[in-house]
Amino acid sequence: MAKVAIVGSETLLGREILEILTDRPLAQLVNPDEAEVVFVAGPEAADSALRPAAGATLIHVARPEKRGVLRAPMAEPEHYLTPESKQIRIAHPGAILLILLFRRLAAVAPIRQAVITLFEPASQQGQAAIEELQEQTIALLNLRPLPKSIYDEQVAFNLLPRWGVEAPESLDQQQQRLEQDLTALYGETPWLSLRLVQAPVFHGYTASAWVSFEADVTVEALARPFREVRTEDEGPATNSAIAGESGLVLDRIILDGDRAAWFWVAADNLRLVAENALLAAASVIEQSTRRVQ
Hints:
single chain; globular; Rossmann fold; 12 strands
C-alpha cells in the first residue's frame, strides 16, 4: 500500500482528506519523512516544519498556494498534459464546480451565454473565517462590537459584493484565482459573466446560473448528465444539505424559453478539493509504480 502524509491535518482541508482516507483506505498514513505523497493542507508557514522524504511529491491544497502543476482530475480535459513535478496544486473549488457544470451542459447543446452568481462560504478562507462568522453572529445578537480581522466587514446576516479595505485579501483576488484556474483547465470562456459574492454561510458553494444554448433544450435533456437533480417532492439543494457529498447537486431546472434555463447548483467546496487531491495522489503513485516496474 502506498504511503502518504498530511501536513496540517488539523485544518478543515486536512480533516476532510483524513476523513476520506479513513472511509476509503487507499493508502497508509505515515510521517512526512517516510511518505511518497504529502498533502500540504496547512498555511504556508507549515513549509518551514515540512521534512518530506527524498523524492516525495507535495500536493498543496491550502488556498494561498501558487506553486506547482495545476491539477483537478475531476475537471481536467481528456489527454490533459501534466508535466512531471514534485509540486502539485489543486484548482480552486469554484473553478472545479463551474467546469463540471459547463462540460455536462455543453454535452447537451453548445453554450451561447452563461450568467452566474457564485456564493462563497466562510470555510473557503479556513477555520479563522468560520470562527469570525460565528463570533459576528453571536455579537450581533448580543449588541456587541463585531470582530472583522478576516473580512473587515459584517458578514453575518449579510451578503457582501466585496470585503472591507483592511481585509488581508480581497474578494476580487479570490475571483481572479478562480478564473485563472478555470481558463487553465477549461479554456477561454468569452460567453461567461461571473460574479463572486460572499455569503453568510459556514460551508458549501451555491450558484445561481442562467445559461442559454445554441439549440433548443428540454428539462429532461439538461438533467440527464447530472448525478442528482432535486425535484419538487424532495428537499432543495442547499449548501448545508450537500455537506460531505461528491460532485454537484442541482435543484429543479427551470426553462426560460426554448434555448435557455435557470440552474441552482450546490457543491461541498472542501470535498471537491479533497477528492481531487486524492485522485491526483493516486495518479502520482500509479506513475511511480510504472517506473519501478
